[in-house]
User: What shape does this take?
Amino acid sequence: MTIIIYLHSMREIKLLETRSEIGAGTRGASLGIDALKVASWDFKSPYFSNYPIETIPNKNKKLFNKIEYKYAKRIKGVAKVLESVANATKNTIRDGVFPIVLAGDHSSAAGTIAGIKMAYPDKRIGVIWLDAHADLHTPYTSPSGNVHGMPLAVCLNEDNLACKKNDPPQKIIEQWERMKNIGGIAPKINAEDLVFIAIRDCEEEEIHIIEDQNIKVFTVEESRKMGMKSCAAKTIEYLKDCDYIYLTYDVDCIDSSISKGTGTPVPNGLFEKEIEELMLAFMHTEKLCCFEVTEVNPTLDSENKMAEIAFQILEKCTHALQGK
Ligand SMILES: [Mn+2]
Assistant: This one.
């Protein structure tokens, strides 16, 4: 135990900021990172001056252009952003530094996971997906066409043709294939190495993948009943054969009574203290190699509440990671 704490205290951290929001359906998530900074100023926290920051280029100017294909909106721009996120994540890990990714919309996670796999091509990567949604759509199944609902299908190299509803044109398929093959590795993760926590708003096409591939899910009720520490321990135990673990935190995992400042709030979620307890428990696993905070949208909020909650959890998690 002492050794683990010692290793954690040695962890060097870098913040990767990706303000891309072209994968979201509601505008404003690109402002999420700056809303976190406003929260840090209001709390008089030096957090953002404590760590090096790398800003990843975005393609948000594409939001002024016409949409090419309605079932995979701005997919070419997303693919380009994901490549940049993947390279930044890979380089950070290869430098021996722990990346904390602060993202606009959740499509970024496919880039982050690609980067982890590129840094560790021969290792098994476990993924903990804390979210109201399963993000398992594809251009063949998506009802909205928002690519932030697709990152896990990208990582699993899953087209879900069994549930095909849309007929994407060749040039869209080319971009989809490009996203799935970032770093020349596909799939990035195995379905058995994925754990969902708090998902509660899934479409039938996503449920098909979860059931067909027997993906592990801890519902809000299950996690609450067993307690957050126990849920974290069971998740880590489930991922015991993985070499490294990535954790993503979409703020809409929080109950919609609180999470107004996000694009797709959903009722019956976890409460902020529960998320904090859960996230903090994960910080103590030595296999954790990266985590991500995403989908804060201050334009939908009042008084920056979502960012304040997300920032407090982010700061506590970062300190826990460093053994503080
Ligand atoms: Mn999500």
